[in-house]
Design brief:
Chain A is an alpha+beta fold and about 500 residues long. Chain A is about 35% helix and about 25% strand. Strand 5 of chain A pairs antiparallel with strand 5 (about 100-110) of chain B.
Chain lengths: ~500, ~500
């Protein structure tokens, strides 16, 4: 606990502990206070509550449109993958497919004691997809026959499972939601361009919708997706200084087309193995959104992904005014809808201050109070969530309606700018491994940037990795692959 | 094979066999020719191809908006259900949870021979959800505390699994996609009203978007969802005379709130068990769409659910015209998009007649041909898929653009009208069980409608059920529960 928090003068915060006091616990409590998700009665899994799921729906809506604009179609492939498919790929799936849900029976039967037990053993066990390269590759081997069938660009929105030993809501759960794109090309260069293009689509999505910037670049060879010849990533930094891999885009070379036998008759009349890419973004993105933007009063939603952008708070001081106030709120909500702004009126019987704190904890971008006085004066008081009391303004209803679009746009922009400032401060340049060790042994949060050559084949770097639980996050494009960022990561 | 088909004068059809020759095989071939789906390399599962998945996306988009308009929020619950949850409900799940995918291990390990085998046996097996009443009920038992928490209305879009012994694409697959709504209320009457309201929402969706009408009513007690006190259904009739249950809406009474212990403190200060409903519509809906609308030339898409509503077919007779024609097509596609009409230009190198047949087999509502002559004359020829050659019209580009919206609306309406005529002809009124037996022994396709009293506790009816594989489909609302429709069903 900080001195400030221990003192009586400590400002009241809606979330305890604060970020500084205990970041992991603060994170859980922000999610709980905003009613975004909770642990499921199934080990390692989560229930995504309506307010959290609405964020995921907005992520899906916008990202899906961006993916389709790249000429990619959606499709759906089976949840279960035969063990033999995995075995074929075993060398590529080290590290995640070992821990997976294995289906071994296809029936429940009552035994002699009357208890339900598994029955109908499968001749071949199946696993719940941890990712779909193997099964999609098998299907593609039949779809792809000629260069005329290429490029083949398909995306799937799906649930996947990786048995997690240390689950954390949104960040690492046994089941999670994601999209996985699987593209096929004639040449290495087309696949490479595609993998880079898709990481740039993700960058645009992260910056423009999530208001989350990141270090964008290539993974070092040991951190690549197994089987990939290049893995590109967006590494965002959370407020506690840890990095979070926001998504990945892989150039899979001919690895998967070799093992699944995806061949095409080329323009020159010869049969060739195709070149494939895969790229994905998952529901852990919601965890990044929280850890980048939330504060000690709870969530702060970027307007473009907010389940609703305006919270209308009826302030009823005299019951006789209730109907009039609610009617006014309904009308205001309608007028906002006509402007493309989503709003929700808090019609609960809660006290006014509780309504306000609910909206704050949920991170609704703008809240507006409507009481008898406001209606009489024709003026509204509205507050931007990210600016606190400084964001409070008074305006006529007309002014409010004509300015709200701009207010939301400005908030979206400000959130990105602030996040970008924080991100830059999270990475410290170091000139040697000695400086790197000193940095991680010190108080400062975040990661370091260092010449890539200095960590290659270095025993001291391996020691630092072990001593401080840090890993190479990426070789940023901005440094043309000459430097590497090293940090702790989620 | 019919006489007509055997004769040399038989008209050429794009799909063989025809509906009359072999309906089940025709169905598979329509799906194949339209590239909508195919059998997966996993037994009983399907791959939904981009063109089929785009239909499902349109179903989701429109139905989701209708569900949200009822005040229902989306959320997401876990894929896996602990065996103990199922055991608690065992009496309700007869008939579908017996055949399910059982997860017994959470790891794959190499054995001494180097083969991957299941390891890490779970202390409690889990099943992949066949439906989510049990797990959602468990979560609701914590969410629902007071009457203030009610009504609680939540929907989930998800994949589910029921191990199918005789799988058929879209209609009956081990894994399928659906939405399942789970609502909670204070009283029996509210739950009953909700179950009826949701079947009416489905009716509206079926009629307005799918252009598929149905007989709407209650299931007889033996056909209800296990545990439900009422199950409402839409029974559509396919072109072969079999019924297909299009969706269901259940009043679950207090069955699931009793077993999951969903209790609330009522307004009178006493603790009561809540009343719940559940309602779902699945990807088998796409199968109904095909079996109601497709003809011997392939699929016919209702314009509101068509992946694209207009197929633009460039007719290139002289290579020198290619660029000009394609530019014209692009411009036309843009102008259609500006009118809210989705179009796709066939830019493949296929022959003109092949392009036409591709559009026909995919059931694109309107196809328009663009060649050098059309451009020179400023006139287009367009054809409605459902009218065949009679639907061919010529118009200037301006006329085409201003009339296309109306053409699509009219086609949507005509498809519903035609389907309604067919549906009516599918049900024959009978006055006795003798007449019923004669009907099913005869040549006429479809089902019968009979006084409900006549089949209750009737040994002869049980014999008819067995002899002709028919079942009571529903007690239509229109007959106020006095009559029952009996038919074969998918």
């Amino acid at each position: 606990m900080t001195e400030a928090a221990k003192s009586n003068k400590a400002p009241r915060t809606a979330i305890t502990p604060t970020r500084e006091e205990n970041f992991p616990e603060w994170y859980q409590n922000v999610i709980k206070a905003a009613e975004m998700a909770e642990n499921a009665p199934v080990r390692g899994c989560m229930v995504i509550r309506p307010y959290g799921y609405a964020v995921w729906e907005n992520i899906q809506k916008h990202l899906d449109a961006m993916i389709k604009a790249e000429g990619v179609d959606n499709a759906y492939f089976p949840l279960l993958i035969p063990l033999s498919f995995i075995a074929k790929e075993a060398k590529h799936i080290d590290g995640f497919a070992k821990e997976c849900a294995v289906v071994t029976h296809h029936r429940l039967e009552a035994n002699d004691a009357g208890d339900l037990v598994p029955a109908g053993e499968l001749t071949e066990p199946m696993i719940i997809r941890p990712t779909s390269e193997t099964i999609i590759g098998d299907v593609y081997s039949r779809w792809v026959q000629s260069y005329r069938d290429l490029p083949l660009k398909i995306n799937q929105w799906a649930n996947v499972m990786r048995w997690e030993m240390r689950p954390r809501i949104f960040l690492r759960t046994s089941e999670f939601l994601w999209q996985e794109g699987h593209n096929v090309f004639e040449t290495h260069d087309q696949a490479e361009a595609d993998a880079r293009r898709m990481i740039d689509v993700y960058r645009e999505f992260y910056e423009d919708y999530m208001a989350v910037p990141g270090y964008i670049g290539a993974k070092t060879p040991d951190e690549r997706f197994p089987g990939a010849i290049e893995t590109y990533t967006i590494e965002a930094f959370m407020q506690d200084g840890k990095a979070l891999q926001g998504c990945t885009s892989h150039n899979l070379g001919q690895t998967f087309s070799n093992s699944a036998d995806i061949k095409f008759l080329d323009r020159d009349g010869t049969l060739k193995h195709a070149w494939t890419t895969s790229w994905g973004l998952s529901s852990r993105t919601v965890g990044a959104l929280i850890m980048v933007h939330a504060d000690d009063d709870g969530m702060v939603m970027p307007p473009k992904l907010a389940p609703h952008q305006v919270a209308i708070l009826p302030i009823v001081r005299d019951d006789a005014d209730t109907d009039k106030i609610l009617a006014f709120c309904d009308e205001l909500q309608k007028q906002l809808a006509a402007k493309g702004v989503t709003a929700r009126t808090d019609k609960t019987e809660a006290r006014s201050s509780d309504k306000m704190w609910t909206a704050i904890k949920k991170g609704v971008p703008v809240r507006v109070e409507v009481g008898a006085r406001e209606i009489a004066e024709g003026k509204l008081t509205f507050t931007r969530r990210d600016l606190g009391k400084d964001g409070k303004k008074t305006a006529t209803v007309g002014e409010f309606l004509s300015s709200i679009g701009g207010v939301l746009d400005q908030m979206q922009k400000d959130m990105l700018d602030r996040a970008r400032e924080k991100m830059k401060a999270m990475v410290t340049d170091v000139a040697s491994l000695k400086e790197m060790r000193d940095f991680f042994a010190g108080e400062k949060i975040g990661g370091v940037r260092i010449d890539y050559k200095l960590i290659q084949d270095s025993e001291e770097f391996e020691a630092i990795k072990k001593d401080f639980s840090v890993t190479p996050r990426c070789l940023p494009f901005d440094d043309e692959g000459q430097k590497v960022i090293v940090a702790k990561a989620y």
